[in-house]
Design goal:
Uridine Diphospho-n-acetylenolpyruvylglucosamine Reductase, domain 2, eight-stranded antiparallel sheet, about 25% helix, about 20% strand, disordered N terminus, flavoprotein, BBE, FAD, oxidoreductase
Length: about 475
Amino acid sequence: MTLETHRPQTGPGLPAGLTPDSVELFRAQLRGTLIQPGDADYAEACQLYNAMIHKRPAMVARCADVADVIAAVALARERKLPLAVRGGGHNGGGLALVDDGLVIDLSRMRGVRVDPEARTVRVAGGAVWGDVDHATHAFGLAVPSGIISTTGVAGLTLGGGLGYLTRRFGLTIDNLLAVDMVLADGRFVTANEEKFPDLFWAVRGGGGNFGVVTSFLFRANPVDIVIGGPTLWPLDRAAEVMRWYREFLPAAPEDLSGFFAFITVPPAPPFPEELHLQKMCGVVWCYTGDPARADELFAPVLALKPALHGVMPMPFPMLQTAFDALYPPGHQWYWRADFVREIPDAAIERHVSFAERLPSMQSTMHLYPIDGAAHRVGPHDTAFRFRDARWSEVIVGVDPSPERAADISTWAKEYWSALHPYSAGGAYVNFMMEEGQERVQATYGDNYPRLVEVKRSYDPENLFHVNQNILPGPVKPPSVAH
């Protein structure tokens, strides 16, 4: 085996519009690092959370500060380069990278500053939620986010933000106070309810379509020790448990949340050995209310005689990291999703039939509740349209081996096709692959025309198009009604 010496890409290998001199000039402008094919850290810079996606950018600008971001946006605009923006790199469709273009990599920009008196937290655009949880928990505070601590703050927030605290405190965007952004024309602006309100409306659910968010200002909420963890039942009781869950959770106090899941029990602690590798159904709970009421609230759960009730007091960051080891970066992922208003018996039958065929230990289906505080924000108050949905359904085929990619993808596609007739029509953008323009339009519904207008105002040339793209052109009516 021979070791080949690589040099940075120059000359004919560069994309149209770039020259070696222009690349070196850009490199000199950066306080961060410019990475190209052949560099020792190029492979690492192109790794995504979803290892099913492979892309080869011409350059990765690992930005150190806002000035680096401004320079990178200017280069992409002036040289007409395909442009992608990378925060945490968790996007299911691999939209943090772009072939033969420029990637603005924010992963060095991870600062978090908490103001405990104002109960706010300022978060840099490359931070992950573990960074935020670490900083806020010291003050007994939390920002609503997802369920895996390695998820990027930027991607999850710009898509809406669903997780354990949604019922109590709303979506992540419902706790967003302001953003600092670099726009397509190079301007650096702060958008909030008073300044650039149209832009602030759009970034709350509209994804990365409007610029590069270099920092977020969030409202933090009093969350310290929660009572959480999984309750599991045998899969042959799944229909019974789903019917119970669809009635129980919407009627429960908002400080109790729980997402429903089909799982294969991991063969490791804290799960008892007799349950290892069994296909089961369950609910993963998070209770943020008075601990004295916990026994009362969980009594109906225990009345269903679960096989495992692993619910206990824990620091909120502990719950947030519970799935990190099961879902590390580098697995094969295939996602399909929908918003759901109701879970009828006919849908439950289809769910159970696909749960019986879970194709791998990590493959799963989750139903995340969207009611409670999230319903007190109107469907047109932010770009996130489906405020009237009760759940966000996500079906994911996951496996470490590339050899299983076809199997897990087929299962997820067939499962989604079987359940889609019972959906509300659109899907949470953070759970979507690249599924086409009609699907994007369905996800934003009657908010889509307004999003197009904002796109025309701030990115008329569609520089920021490597995303669930909102086109600045005319809105086309969908060809099929859902």
